[in-house]
Amino acid sequence: MITRAGGCHCGAVRFEVDAPDVLEVRECNCSICHRVGFLHLIVDRSAFRLVRGEGALTTYTFNTHVAQHTFCSTCGVKSFYVPRSHPDGVSVNARCLDDVDLSDLRISHFDGRNWEANVGTLPGHSG
Known about the structure:
Number of strands: 10
Strand content: 35-45%
Order of helices and strands: EEEHEEEEEEEH
């Protein structure tokens, strides 16, 4: 495990996350992830630390209102959020990590358009 830093586009929101050296992420095709290009690195809440910007965060919820979609109120970037599939964890957008080359990521696909039928296939799903 190594500590990685990341944040939003304008720098108002900054965080650290403890994650494996080789990142395994999920690309979801649900209505929101598909539109924002989110690459999910799901970690335990204890592995995530908000360093700066709590006051800059805005939260959006929909459908069941379990997922807490947080984004920077200045630049609009969604760098992390609390996912419905792992309400005790945090999903970090791997695209928002500093110094991460997307070609080094191990990307697998998740059929979020059919979320209910597929959520059980996610490692560590807590529901």
